[in-house]
User: What shape does this take?
Amino acid sequence: MIALSLALMLNSALSLSKTTAVLPTTGRHPLEQTALRHGARMFFHYCVACHSLKYMRYSRIARDLKLSRQQVMTHLNLTGGRFNDPVISSMPAALATKAFGKVPPDLSLEIRAKGAVWAYNYLNTFYLDPKSPIGWNNTVLPNTTMPFPLWELQGEQVAVVGKDGHQVQKLEIKQLGTMKPAQYRQATRDLIDFLTYVSDPAALQRRRYGIWVMLFLVLFTFLAWLLKKEYWKDIH
Amino acid sequence: MTSRWRHWLEERLPGLTRMIRRHVTAYYAPKNFNLWYYFGSLALLVLLNQLVTGSFLAMNYKPGIATAFDSVQYIMRDVNWGWLIRTMHTTGASLLFVIIFLHTFRSIMYGSFKKPRELVWLLGMLLFVVVMAEAFTGYVLPWGTMSFWATRVVVALFATIPVIGPHLAEWIMGGSLPADATLNRFFALHVIMLPLLLLFLVVLHLTALHEVGSNNPDGVEIRCGPKGNRWGKHYPADGIPFHPYYTLKDLVGVGVFLLVAAYIVFFAPSFDGWFLERNNAVMADPLLTPAHIRPVWYFSAFYAMVRMMPSFAGTAVWGPIAMSGSIALLFALPWIDVGPVKSIRYRGTGYKVALGIFVLAFVGLMLIGSNLTDVLFPWLFGANINLTKWTMIFGRTMMLAYFGFFVFLGLYTHLGWEKTRPVPERVRARG
Ligand code: HEC
Ligand code: HEM
Assistant: This one.
């Protein structure tokens, strides 16, 4: 157990130190409803053109985020799917392969696989790179073929390179977008929160039941202990 | 009413009440069990949990490489309470290993493997091996990237065997790569064959134990001590009926254990990637090799032994030999450690030190197997350290310590070097 908890600590230390930026901590509950709804709006506005969420149904999003069927079908669902259908991008695979060299990956389990910090940093470290065929590059996923979808919001970042002319030292905003840097960080944080929820929608219920189960078990253990004590009184 | 019903049953199945008496109400266990003695009943509890949650998973899981991954997501998202059932199953798997490691360590520490309990120990070790096989076959079923690579790595162990190895590997997988045939046969093993074997072995394990009676933290045989207690004059004076005393005591242990388990299930189901690994959230793809292959935590010590062994004489079989040897030596423990004193409480200092080193070696090997030394070493000794070299040196030292434990113990007890302390006549006050 000791080894295990040590391992746990080390593991989180490792995953943080590897990345260039860190999730802004806002002090609020990790999966808060307004943030999730904002994140969902961002996803369906900026990402669904290319990325699917094949394990996520519109109806489930409506239920979990407390949105009406009509809200979901008119504001989020831009792909023409039915209410009970999963979120499938309308980008044809052949077209995507031609444009980006590969089909944009499904993002249903992206956060389970890569972690929220990784994905957040990915969205925050795009920079202008004239050498890249799409004009953008990224420090987390170098030579990525995803055209930076949020550049209107963040603006244009440029890289300050080291003496060797390659190693990116830091990123600087050259031209501000429609959002201030802090606003942009918050917006991407909400988007990642939404994708975190999509990776494991049961998390919302889990936390709700968990506390009651734990309270019941405390009571159960206490009663069992009283009973045991009573029976063991005469054993010496 | 109850007595009439019981009478009816007794007439037709007299063995049942006899069995309940023998194993529960009139099984006299030493009164001084301590914390370490909770883990046997907890292992039973978790085994039961695996059987029940596993059955419900099997109702919705679809074996086959085209359907397996999707069906697990279907369970997590669309099946009512599916997320709870699956998380209980995955958490249970890891916790069963925590429990078994502690249960086995208890048996070593208090000499429970010694005469007259050698058979109990052998059956326990057999259980350990079958539980490992059960865990491995289960790990393959979700057909994530790690499922695929775990299969390749494990099968590669068999493939190192000279001459027959490659054929054996192909025979196990039903092909030259993990594929549909592999997944389907592992499903059958995981849900039918191995669980039946486990149940059968558990019955034998407990029957064999109750035949000779439980050991205890003092390592004193209560059946050899004075007779006569409140319940009868033939029963051991220091024994108390399993029910209601230990059923109630174990119930408290169950409560505490369930609190820990529930915390994980409800608040940390992936345990930060240790119980449910990140790479396994990506469907298996033979063309995609993950950057970091590391075994699931409970196999990491054994995997480290394979990694630390060099290949020489033209074969890589030495790794698998070391790994199976590390388990085979445990099987042989009753004949390696022949010291007359059972419990660590009254054993020589040499024994205590050796056991401590053995535990450290096992933990050290776990750190290597799970790649944690890659973080730990630069942190401790600076970023410029030659990782490959020092991991090798550290790992081989740990292996030496692991195997050295058995060599030392053999010499120490066979040659009579051990200076033991006097063992009390009877068990000391209850634990
Ligand atoms: C124009 C199409 C397009 C749009 C719009 C788009 N992406 Fe992408 N995305 C891609 C492509 C193509 C890749 C593969 C990039 C690569 O592998 O280098 C990708 C990769 C990714 C990855 C990395 C996946 C991995 O694990 O390697 C993430 C995360 C991601 N996108 C998130 C988003 C988010 C969030 C949005 C919305 C803000 C978005 N994408 C919008 C095309 C797009
Ligand atoms: C599924 C796995 C297992 C189950 C369900 C199980 C169950 C039990 C139970 C219920 C007991 C009696 C209570 C106790 O002594 O704690 C017990 C005793 C024992 N077990 Fe296990 N066991 C398992 C695996 C193992 C393993 C892997 C070993 C080690 C080789 C082992 C060795 C022993 C020994 C030596 C005893 C007697 C202990 C004593 O009397 O001091 N068991 N087991």
User: Anything to note?
Assistant: Residues 53 and 347 of chain B are 43 Å apart (CA to CA).
